[in-house]
Design brief:
This protein is an alpha+beta fold and 163 residues long. It folds into 2 domains: 67 residues, Alpha-Beta Plaits; 85 residues, 2-Layer Sandwich (Alpha-Beta Plaits), CATH 3.30.70. The protein is 37% helix and 27% strand. Strands 2, 3, 4, 5 and 6 form a 5-stranded antiparallel sheet that branches. It has a 4-stranded antiparallel sheet with strand order 7-8-1-9, with helices on one face. Helix 1 crosses helix 2. The mean pLDDT is 92.
């Protein structure tokens, strides 16, 4: 009998992020507190969103609107990385990066946690930006999934390809 397995990935649905970005842009365009401050949110590359406004507070408020829209669309905020708004000319800019995949250091910490706390016979392999977890018993895999759901690694994790 072959081993059962599943993959641990960290993916964000780009279409949902795009929809949240469009909704945030519409709300920023119509809200009274964003009038005449030049606030906007837009794509600035493949996985980067640029938030712009004339003041630092409005820039942070525009980011909050974008975050609210992401939460309503079911996108985890753990996938976002950003710093503080930076003054660029006459406007403040904030670059927000949307992370995809599991970085090597995070993968190592996940594997270490699984090896330490999972039942015996559970194997883990790093495959690029995802992990493959396999075991002879499906119950062992279920316990690993429960372990991953209760742990916080700072990134959104999904368990896919369960077989």
């Amino acid at each position: 009998m072959a081993d059962s397995s599943f993959d641990v990935v960290s993916k964000v649905d780009r279409q949902e992020v795009d929809n949240a970005l469009n909704q945030a842009g519409k709300e920023i365009g119509t809200r009274f507190d964003f009038k005449n401050v030049g606030a906007s949110v837009a794509w600035s590359g493949d996985a980067t969103v640029m938030v712009k406004a004339s003041t630092e507070e409005r820039c942070k408020a525009a980011l909050d609107v974008f975050r609210e829209r992401l939460v309503k669309r079911g996108v985890s905020l753990k996938a976002l990385q950003h710093g503080e708004p930076q003054l660029s000319g006459k406007e403040y800019r904030l670059s927000v990066t949307i992370n995809q995949g599991i970085a090597d250091d995070k993968a190592k910490s996940i594997v270490k946690k699984i090896k330490a706390e999972a039942p015996r016979g559970v194997n883990c392999q790093v495959q690029g930006d995802q992990l493959r977890v396999s075991a002879k018993k499906k119950d062992d895999l279920q316990s690993v999934i429960a372990l991953l759901k209760e742990s916080d690694f700072g990134i959104p994790l999904q368990c896919v390809n369960y077989r």
